[in-house]
Amino acid sequence: MAKCEKCGKSTVFGHNRSFSNRATNRTFRPNLQRVLVMEKGRKVRLVLCAKCIRTMGKTE
């Protein structure tokens, strides 16, 4: 299953709710992207969610 390598965010399951309040299954998928990151002086390719990518940009 796809998972963010920094925060561990992954797919979560829930329900779609119609106007009549009937529940059907659905999935909530994180916005995962492959990015090149400098880690200990080396370029490393990681799978990160968009929130982690934004946070890393703010701390640099």
What structural class do the secondary elements suggest?
Answer: alpha+beta
Total count of strands: 4
Rg value:
16 Å
Number of separate structural domains: 1
| Inertia-based shape | elongated
Which sequence of SSEs, written as H and E, runs from N to C? EEEEH
Strand ordering within the main sheet: 1-2
Structure characteristics:
single chain; 60 residues; alpha+beta; two-stranded antiparallel sheet; 1 helix
Characterize the structure shown.
With 60 residues, the chain is of the alpha+beta class. Helices cover 17% and strands 47% of the residues. β1 and β2 form a beta hairpin. The mean pLDDT is 94. The chain has one domain. The strands form two sheets. A two-stranded antiparallel sheet has the order 1-2. The chain has a two-stranded antiparallel sheet with strand order 3-4. The two termini are 30 Å apart.
Could you give the topology of this structure?
Blueprint: E1 12-17, E2 23-28, E3 32-39, E4 42-49, H1 50-59
Antiparallel strand pairs: 1-2, 3-4
